[in-house]
Batch of 3 targets.
Target 1
Amino acid sequence: MFTFMIVMRCITWAVYSDQVRPIPGTPADANAKRASLKAALCNACDLALGVRELSWQGPSKPRTLLQVPPPQQRYPFLRRRTRSVILHLILGDALLYVLQSFSPELGTPVGGSVFDPSLPPLWRYLRSTTMTFLFGSLIYVTTRTVYDAISVLVVLILRQSPSQWPPLFFSPWMATSLTELWGDRWHHMNRSWMVALGAKPASRILGRAAGVLGAFAISGLMHDLGLRAVGRGSDFAAVFGFFFMMGVGVVMESAWRTVSGRLPSGIAGRLWVFTWLGLWGNRAADAWLTRGAATSGLVPEPYRPLKLVWAFVAGS
């Protein structure tokens, strides 16, 4: 999967080679000015592996990455990120614990479904939607925990600058439109090549709406491939369909903005975002959870915080 993403990034930079320019003042810019093999290799690795492209003027960048982050001192940064890792490890374990409490099969490699056919339709979908948002929250917390942990290690040991590790997410739960959620607030680790290889070609041929759908279609294909890597197949309609319908939602918002002059906003916008995510997320979450996605978290089973607390309380 990681190899696939590297290949996609290399194809992107080959197609858009005229845009491969380092941003002035960045480490890549300093390396570009050095006529040495080491500097060239550093920039090549940064292009292939630096998924957020912080040092490069890429073909597409979200608004949140165009903002210049305030300067940060090393040790306050390390304290904040270490605290974040600890808090999110505990939160992730709590989310996993609650999710697994819905069905004992979820905590096994076999996995379990979000749908309980024994329940009436209303309660069945209320249950599945609750589990869907728990699983989505777990994905967010796990991704952020890993990112923050890596940032602590490389800033502490490799002496990288804190400015090279800006926040990965920007409070996605505050989004009042799908455009804001996927364009600015969610992580952008795969955004560049999805836009370059999906959105740009489709938009040139069929227009902006097709470009939006093209980017989300590539995202759906990538996530379907990632699920198949588990070795238990996939549910293409559910996984691809979720991401493609996110694109449909963004296109619908664009049409709404043409009519009303603005994107959804406020409480109504937030309700719209959660409704659309829940509507198409049920089957996608089911596709992952029936293949063991909630088997375990980042903390080994014997050392899970909530289990240790529960054992302590039970033994008191």
Target 2
Amino acid sequence: MLKVPEHQVAGHQVRDGKLGPLVDDTGRFYKPLQSDERGSKEVAFYTSFSSNSRIPDNIRKFFPVFHGTQLLEVSGGSGLHPHLVLQDVVSGLVNPSVMDIKIGTRTWYPEASEEYIQKCIKKDRETTTVPLGFRISGWQIHHESSGYQKPDKRTVKGLNKEDVRLVLRKFVSSDLDPLDCSLASVVYGGSAGILAQLLELKSWFEDQTMFHFYSCSILMLYEKQLPVEKKTFRSQVKLVDFAHIVEGKGVIDHNFLGGLCSLIKFISEILTCPCPDEYAGKACLQDIETNWHDS
């Protein structure tokens, strides 16, 4: 049975007759294809990537598994619509904390229309995309005492550099103290933590010249309370959203690589100095949380 994703934190959502992704109980994620060239570009990327023998096995784990395309009935009785069928990256997790981060100082691709380019430039300048090389598009944090906390869109769009630093700290903090970073060493740190995975991706992007990843996002996810049968704490990094991929033509993707390096720097700083100025940090976080809601 298809249903709306419970843990989606950014992107288009099924609402008021609008198309959005769906999931099933078998671990598959159904993403509606955009009707313009972006839809065909994303299918072409997944098809090419999944069969490309030059992609190292250790890099494939960062991309959702591609299961082809499928026509699905959409809401509102408007008929069948083609969907990408992908791995549901949060399937099997009970209470995941998730963050969506759009990478790169430039989110528009060279072949885009002038109208689309100007729209992207405006948003890139109004957010942290230009100054930081990435912007946080959404997140949810699970707390044992209060359930999920998610920000509204206005809060996310208004994040500045210091807000980004605080949100990245909040993401790995306990229920008791919103900025104690008590989970940083196990979520961000360690040989299998998020930082190690980002560094593994960075090593590939320093060499790969096959693709340029415009407007692509990194998902960071983990679970505080694991099912009984799972005995190890597991953090995951996934790349998603490939409707704006273009051929690399032998040139390194400096746009994505630069943004990735910037994110790595922010997370490394948290591991090096997990406790910021306590008074200032908590005051800023309180302002951000004004527009959060519990669910």
Target 3
Amino acid sequence: MNFSTITAFVAAAGLNVFYREAGPKDAPVILLLHGFPSSSHQYRNIIPILSDKYRVIAPDLPGFGFTEVPESLNYSYTFANLTKSVEAFLDVLEIKKFSVYIFDYGAPTALRIALDRPDAVQAIISQNGNAYVEGLGSFWDPLKAYWASNSTSDREFIKANLLTFNATKGQYINGSTSAVEPEAYYLDYALLSRPGNDDIQLDLFYDYQTNVALYPQFQEYFRKSQVPLLAVWGKNDAIFIPPGAEAFKRDLPKADVKFLDAGHFAVETETNEIAKLTLDFLGENGI
């Protein structure tokens, strides 16, 4: 049975959260959390495949996509607040348990939720969603300099080099062995270019260091919970490199680690393979 993907807004903690949803309302939930510089749009092709068996939900994080953040909130763009916002979204939809597909920024957001609500997470599918320092590629070197200095010059360097159209496009096409639909990176850049959004992104770049500081706690969560985990990794990703995928097995010996001949946005080009791996993995774990 094919379920159409619906798009909707829901009020949660003062935000107007945009999300995509498909699948039976009474089915087990898969929560898809996107990364920088994208939105739930990155999951537009995989949602229909997963929704035959699961209720699939993909929100836009604050600062991304079409989620609306009123100025009156004076919202501070940190990963702690992104986490609180997603938790409020889940509460409004009355979602108590879910499997989570983590990618890029979605990884620390979901893993912070797991620290808060360890019993809520039934399984993790990590597609280039990092939780280990070994997974940080050279892409992060200028960001580490920014973290150390918090200087205006480093902030401007990041803006000039990471918040451009070519940088946005590069995240999609670098390392990819297949064509990427161009509307993906054109949409991302259009949304990144909204007035004030560059400061939002720069604040989140700076705050990312708090995720790295939490890596030991994420890893302790893995060891204690032994949560079922599938790492399906674009092996040509220069942002989150393959050692980050391999490191999962240190804390989760039963983790299933698969490498694909793809780049950072592997879900754009390897949609069917990732969907099949995900469905098989969840089925094998009785979900």
